[in-house]
Amino acid sequence: MIPLSATLARVRPSPTVAATQRARELAAAGRDVISLSAGEPDFDTPRHVKDAAIAALEAGKTKYTAPDGIPELKQAVAAKFRRENGLDYKPSEITVSAGGKQVLFNALMATLNPGDEVVIPAPYWVSYPDIVRLAGAEPVIVEAPMAQGFKLSAEALEAAITPRTRWFLFNSPSNPSGAGYSRAELAALTEVLMRHPHVWVLSDDIYEHIAYDGFDFVTPVQVEPRLRDRTLTMNGVSKAYAMTGWRIGYAGGPAELIAAMRKVQSQSTTCPASLSQWAAVAALEGPQDCIAQAGTAFCRRRDMVVARLNAIPGIDCPLPEGAFYVYPSIAGLIGRTTAGGRRIGTDQDFTDALLEEQGVAAVFGAAFGLSPHFRVSYAASDAALEDACTRIAAFVAGMH
Ligand code: PLP
Question: Which of 50, 238, 332, 400 has a CA between 20 and 30 Å from the CA of residue 351?
Answer without folding.
Answer: 238
